[in-house]
Write a structure and sequence with these properties.
The structure is a homodimer of 116-residue chains. Chain A has one domain: Transcriptional coactivator/pterin dehydratase (Gyrase A, domain 2), CATH 3.30.1360.20. Helices cover 33% and strands 22% of the residues of chain A. The first copy, chain A, has three helices and four strands. A four-stranded antiparallel beta sheet of chain A has the order 1-2-4-3, with helices on one face. In chain A, β1 and β2 form a beta hairpin. In chain A, α2 crosses α3. Chains A and B meet through α2 and β3 of A and α2 and β3 of B. β3 of chain A pairs antiparallel with β3 of chain B.
């Protein structure tokens, strides 16, 4: 059985790393309810918007995402607004989506279901 | 002499609060080098992008902006990416730019010129 995305780790990408097939993307998305694949800035991105009351809960989520992004060497785009945090993930070296994006997405989701 | 923007405080806006004239906007912008007025989402916004090395300095700036936004009751849109934090300000109740946006911009700038 495949290792759950949240338990995997991002691997360093070289320029030219291939992007995932639509089949792989769809398979990963089944593990990530709440996330969707969007076309933005000329390539596919993995996106989710978390909703909150007020501003501070979004700031706190940014603070919890940051050490994971640093540890994985993979960084999301985070749009923090009053009441929401939009997370966009894509792999610059590949010019699209790789396993790394889905792994980080799963780790971010995990922040909201654990106290850790 | 007018009070510097950074020393003023945001005032609560009612729906229908008038937006600033172009003349007022241009006058305020003179106090805020680095900021520009952009058209986005159907109205004017006050925007600045701060550049950093890496991801964490942007997170730290988000953390320093948050208590000011809370104290002023006025919240920016913050787009945090690797190497940059883009700040967008506008006043929802007015549907455009008010003094509050320029006051908050000045206070955010001040974070980068002081240790406080």
């Amino acid at each position: 059985m495949a290792t759950p995305l949240a338990e995997r780790h991002c691997v360093a990408c070289e320029p030219g790393t291939p992007t995932l097939s639509r089949e792989d993307i769809d398979r990963h998305l089944q593990e990530l309810p709440g996330w969707s694949v969007v076309q933005a800035e000329g390539h596919l991105q993995l996106a989710r918007t978390y909703k909150f009351k007020g501003f501070v809960p979004g700031v706190e989520l940014v603070d919890r995402i940051a050490p994971i992004a640093e540890a994985e060497g993979h960084h999301p785009d985070l749009l923090l607004t009053y009441g929401a945090l939009r997370v966009n993930l894509w792999t610059h070296a590949a010019g699209g989506l790789t396993d790394n994006d889905f792994i980080l997405a799963a780790k971010i989701d995990q922040l909201l279901t654990t106290d850790g």
